[in-house]
Structure prediction request, 266 residues.
Amino acid sequence: MSNGEGRRLNKFISDSGYCSRREADKLILQNQVSINGKRPGLGAQVMPGDVVMVEGKRIRTVNPDKTDRVYIAYHKPVGITCTTEAHVPGNIIDAVGHKKRIFPVGRLDKDSEGLIFLTSDGDIVNKILRAENAHEKEYIVTVDKPLSGQFAERMAKGVPILGTVTKPCKVMILSRNVFKIILVQGMNRQIRRMCEHFGYEVTRLKRTRIMNVKLDALKLGQWRNLSAEEMAEINQAVGGLSGTAGAAGKSRPRRQNGPKTGGRRR
Prediction:
């Protein structure tokens, strides 16, 4: 913040690596944020020398080259909830057990498994979410009964759900009860609702790819760092973001610590 220029509060918090802009706005509305001891509004600006506190902790800007940022791919098991709320049983942050403060990029339903990104870089979260309807996500889906001959064609054309029609997508039948679907959209429980429209119930849903990153051999409950090459492609796909590619590390899989199970309702 040089030359007396301010920065929007939610961006300042996001740039610090504390959380995404969306989560920052929630914290502001919950009166968990202060600037120089005062409660700000959503559009507040942070000026040079201002003291910003979030949930009782002072927030500062970080290295502009973002070499200290974390970008990981995680194979989420069924039962894990994609939230940063520590009080939620089975939350994804406890499940991953990373030493740095990270947060998920988007969502994957509690009753679904598969690939999801987590990061400490709030800026790239916003870029990916803004570009969500422009990049592919691939799923393998199992349903409760044999698929009809017209199922793939009808699904691919678009399905009326939630008061609208889904975008055209790619669908391939893999076996009697299993198909692959590639979406460029992220509506709430979209695949399950699409299947319900045709009289099918999803019994298993697994996300196997996000953009250029595949789940491949990453085992259930494991995570790995995204490679520099993967980050470079992601940055290009979402409009570019300087400095993030160099922050990616080796992609050796890590096993989750796992959430504590005592008294949990999962």
About this structure: Residues 24 and 202 are 34 Å apart (CA to CA). The chain is about 20% helix and 25% strand.
